[in-house]
Amino acid sequence: MELRRIPIYQSLNRPNLILGGERELTLMSALISGALVFLGMSLLTTLLGVTVWSCSLFALRKMAKVDPRMSLVYRRHLVYQPTYLAKSRVWRNFQSFWRAN
Questions:
Q1: Pairing outcome for strands 17-18 and 21-22
Q2: Largest CA distance in the chain
Q3: Closest Cα to residue 33, out of 52, 9, 18?
Q4: CA torsion sign, 63 to 64 to 70 to 71?
Q5: pLDDT at 25 over 80
Q6: Residue 82 in 3-state DSSP?
Q7: Cβ-based neighbour number of residue 96 at 10 Å
Q8: CA–CA distance from 65 to each of 44, 59, 70, 91 (Å)?
Q9: What does the alpha-carbon distance between residue 61 and residue 65 come to, in Å, rounded to a whole number?
Q10: Whole-model pTM above 0.85?
């Protein structure tokens, strides 16, 4: 009996990206830089807003190339960080020592 093959279409599994960056972060950086431009209403704040927008878009694109859902992974990491410590406990060293001997 042959296994049934079900096609998984690429369009259903693509991450939700805007301009190459994560959707929420790209829109938030656009909102911040747009607010800076329109609320400042000077040449300096316009240049600063365009610079902030271009730098943040560059960073968000590079971040999305590594992992399209990196902000979600980072948030989950922060939630679980107290649970999974980076170092092992002291008693584990003694426990492995007594098992080896």
A1: antiparallel
A2: 74
A3: 52
A4: positive
A5: yes
A6: coil
A7: 10
A8: 32, 10, 10, 41
A9: 6
A10: no
